[in-house]
Amino acid sequence: MKVPTSLATDFLTIATGLRTARRHVLKDKVLIYGTFQPGRVYIVEHGYVRLGTTQADGRVATRALLGKASIFGDLPFCPATFEQSGVAVASGEAHVIELKRPALETVVRQDEAVRQTLLEIYGLQFRFLDRRLQWQFIMPLERRIATVLLDLMCFGGKSCPHHPGYVLDIRLTHQELSELVLAARSNVTPILNTFRAQNVIAYSRAYICLRALDALGEIAAGVAIGLDARLCSSPAQYPPMYTRTK
Predict the structure, then answer these.
(1) DSSP state letter for 155
(2) Where are the domains of the chain?
(3) What pLDDT, in 10s, does the model give residues 187-219?
């Protein structure tokens, strides 16, 4: 998920202003935590963080991707019996702010503006979770993949240097994408190949380029498309998924 720029700026200003704040600059795949850490709150300042679970072979299975100003760890004001299980890993270079939960809770209680900011952050994250639960359990796999690719555009995209279209700002392997849509890689790769044959996407080991956002939107909505999708996408349509509370 992506937090609106103004909200992200406000939240990061609050976080970095706390005396207990510690900044971590992490390289790709560096572990942020491997088990639940009571009392520790983390906020993404730059880059991306993968939340996942550790498999029997030691591999981390991705269940969520967090961008700038997203909060994770021991979330403030959550009941003491509530634990965030799993692991957190940097996805590419990431800057993460570590806070003490009591310090953040204290400033939230004392400042109404800070309280409003945290509520908006929570609201966006739970809204995104609700959306994800809907498409995970309702949509056929082809629609789930198209929806996830569109959702990933909320992290930002720029003109692709290799093809007409927009390259995703975040790098994902087929395995990581498969984990996000709760499907086996062997089932996801053929669908990606079909999208590529239809000129909807292009991809390599280094990038995923969305060549036809409008066509992806039609697939996500369950509308059949032709074998040669028109390249008439506008990046301005994806997002806004969320807007700042006024």
Answers:
(1) G
(2) 5-135, 139-237
(3) 999 999 999 999 999 988 878 899 988 899 899
| Res 138 pLDDT > 60 | yes
CA distance 199 to 231: 8
Q: Which residues are paired to 42 by β-bridges?
A: 72, 98
pTM, rounded to two decimals: 0.80
* Residue 74 CB partners (closer than 8 Å, separation 6+): 36, 37, 38, 39, 40, 41, 84, 101
Say yes or no to pLDDT of 68 above 70: yes
What confidence tens digit (pLDDT) does each residue in 80-137 have?
655 556 899 999 899 999 999 999 999 999 999 999 999 999 998 888 887 777 767 7
The answer to whether 187 and 147 have CB atoms below 8 angstroms apart is no
- Residue 181 CA to residue 143 CA, distance in Å, equals 10
Residue 63's contacts (CB-CB under 8 Å, 6 or more residues apart) are 51, 52, 53, 86, 179, 180
Return d(Cα 27, Cα 51) in angstroms, integer. Answer: 16
Q: How far apart are CA 85 and CA 39, in angstroms?
A: 14
Domain 5-135 in this protein, CATH class: mainly beta
Q: How confident is the model at residue 245 (pLDDT cuts 50, 70, 90)?
A: very low
φ and ψ at residue 140, rounded to 5 degrees:
-60, 160
User: In this structure, which CATH number among 1.20.120.1760, 3.40.50.1000, 1.10.10.10, 2.60.40.10 belongs to the domain 139-237?
Assistant: 1.10.10.10
Distance separating alpha carbons of residues 17 and 8, to the nearest angstrom: 14
